[in-house]
């Protein structure tokens, strides 16, 4: 890798992968309007505030019923469509020939737009099409191969036991901070062979990469840039070390992979952020979402305690119910018809997994957590086709082990108040959730 790894100041333009105009420009002032009374064309679900207040559901219900391929056009983002039904989401997600990932996975700027000066020109294999996507993904996939997962389970269980045994009982604490973040950050540190004492940097970089500027994580794009450059500099040092002393970690795989060892610096950064966010936000928010959901549906918690064998199916149902990444984007490669709508080449297609996972034509009682749901594993949260989540089995294993160990120790986990939710229409998660534990 070149010297620009350490000081990539010449990279002026960006695919704006972490700059989502929709979150910034679709700001709802005052009361959130009633979804039922709005003109259909005025509905735009790309609003961080809707998700932070958990008020997106009525808008998606209406779009699924009345306009499941829904058009919006804004000054910054240009033309984009919201896909809200399971059928169209799966169709687009599975068709990389007609719908490309190469222009970004979140709502961004039109593909021919002049982009903001100073943003980072990152790229990542999830935002690529074949063949580049395939060879880069193949390089890092051994870390989540079945044989490696089997080797990791003992370590995951021991760390889960240690974290749960350290928790206070019968007194309030923040589940997000002390359990969800800690467990996922420890796992990320292991996958990267990252210095354990610095592991919370990984959490910070994940939050920075997906944050809406001015909403509490970063104040500006300039701050985001500076912190992601810090991430790149830190991992560049690890890269150089692993070139000389390779191991079985992700950095070593990238540094020695035939198709990744000559990556440009900001391509390296992009893939790092992809792996960090993919291994952090998704699992940690499902860890918190499961506790919250079982409090919303206490009869399901009773069912679980009566039959712990339901844990694997419950894990899939939690991931469906939570949907930790609300959507992914594709871009139309050509003019095409979708469900009777005339899609133009270059249009952005937002696949709202969070809505498809509540489609009542696929999931009975979709808003309820049903831990023995027969088709729970058909959820959209991991995606479909060539971009299906690489770490899905690892995430499921972490959640399974967590709930096995919870049931071994605690009679109840009580959520004390509504959690604080992530200010984002992309990451659907929690920033704080106060709970108390009742031991067995």
Describe the fold and architecture.
Helices cover 44% and strands 11% of the residues. By secondary structure, it is an alpha+beta fold. The protein has a single domain (3-439), classed as Orthogonal Bundle (Cytochrome p450). A five-stranded mixed beta sheet has the order 1-2-8-5-3. Strand 1 (69-74) and strand 2 (78-83) form a beta hairpin. Helix 9 (221-244) packs across helix 11 (265-296) and helix 13 (311-322) packs across helix 15. Residues 1-20 and 117-131 have low confidence and may be disordered.
Residue runs with pLDDT of under 50 for 5 or more positions? 1-20, 117-131
Radius of gyration: 21 Å
Mean pLDDT: 83
| CATH superfamily membership | Cytochrome P450
CATH top level?
Mainly Alpha
Number of strands: 12
Architecture per CATH nomenclature, i.e. the level-2 architecture = Orthogonal Bundle
- What topology, given as strand order, has the largest sheet? 1-2-8-5-3
> By helix and strand content, what is the structural category?
alpha+beta
Concise account of the structure shown:
With 440 residues, this protein is of the alpha+beta class. It contains 15 helices and twelve strands. The termini are far apart.
What attributes characterize this protein structure?
440 residues; alpha+beta; Cytochrome p450; 5-stranded mixed sheet; 3-stranded antiparallel sheet; 15 helices; globular
Secondary structure: elements and pairs:
Layout (H helix, E strand, L loop, with lengths): L20 H5 L22 H5 L4 H10 L2 E6 L3 E6 L2 H8 L5 E2 L31 H9 L5 H20 L7 E2 H18 L7 H11 L10 H24 L5 H7 L8 H32 L1 H9 L4 H12 L5 E5 L3 E3 L2 E3 L4 E4 L1 H4 L35 H18 E6 L4 E2 L8 E3 L1 E6 L1
Helix pairs in contact: 6-7, 6-15, 7-11, 8-9, 8-11, 9-10, 9-11, 11-12, 11-13, 11-15, 13-15
């Amino acid at each position: 890798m070149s010297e620009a790894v350490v000081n990539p100041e010449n990279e002026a333009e960006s695919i704006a992968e972490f700059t989502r105009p929709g979150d910034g420009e679709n700001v709802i002032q005052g009361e959130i309007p009633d979804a039922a009374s709005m003109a259909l064309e005025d509905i735009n679900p790309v609003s961080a505030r809707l998700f932070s207040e958990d008020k997106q559901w009525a808008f998606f219900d209406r779009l699924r019923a009345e306009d499941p391929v829904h058009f919006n056009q804004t000054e910054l983002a240009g033309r984009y469509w919201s896909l809200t039904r399971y059928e169209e989401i799966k169709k687009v997600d599975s068709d990389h020939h007609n719908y490309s990932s190469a222009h970004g996975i979140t709502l961004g700027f039109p593909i021919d737009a002049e982009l903001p000066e100073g943003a980072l020109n990152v790229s990542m294999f999830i935002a690529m099409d074949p063949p580049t996507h395939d060879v880069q993904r193949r390089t890092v996939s051994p870390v989540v191969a079945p044989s490696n997962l089997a080797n990791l389970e003992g370590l995951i269980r021991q760390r889960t036991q240690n974290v749960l045994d350290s928790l206070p009982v019968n007194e309030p604490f923040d589940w997000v901070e002390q359990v969800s973040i800690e467990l996922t950050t420890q796992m990320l540190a292991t996958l990267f062979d990252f210095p354990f004492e610095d592991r919370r940097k990984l959490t910070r970089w994940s939050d920075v990469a997906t944050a809406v500027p001015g909403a509490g994580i970063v104040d500006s794009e300039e701050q985001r840039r500076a912190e992601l450059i810090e991430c790149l500099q830190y991992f560049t040092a690890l890269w150089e070390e692993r070139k000389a002393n390779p191991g079985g970690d992700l950095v070593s795989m990238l540094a020695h992979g035939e198709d990744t060892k000559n990556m440009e610096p900001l391509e390296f950064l992009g893939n790092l952020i992809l792996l960090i966010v993919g291994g952090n936000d998704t699992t940690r928010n499902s860890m918190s979402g499961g506790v919250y959901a079982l409090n919303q549906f206490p009869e399901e918690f009773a069912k679980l305690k009566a039959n712990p064998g339901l844990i694997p199916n419950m894990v899939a149902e939690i991931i469906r119910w939570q949907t930790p990444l609300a959507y992914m984007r594709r871009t139309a490669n050509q003019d095409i018809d979708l469900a009777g709508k005339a899609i133009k080449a270059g249009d952005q297609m937002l696949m709202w997994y969070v809505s498809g996972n509540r489609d009542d034509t696929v999931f009975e009682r979709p808003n309820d957590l049903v831990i023995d749901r027969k088709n729970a594993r058909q959820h959209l949260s991991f995606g479909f086709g060539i971009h299906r989540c690489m770490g899905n089995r690892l995430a499921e294993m972490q959640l399974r082990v967590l709930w096995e160990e919870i049931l071994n120790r605690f009679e109840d986990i009580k959520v004390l108040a509504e959690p604080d939710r992530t200010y984002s229409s992309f990451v659907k998660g929690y920033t704080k959730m106060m709970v108390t534990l009742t031991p067995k």
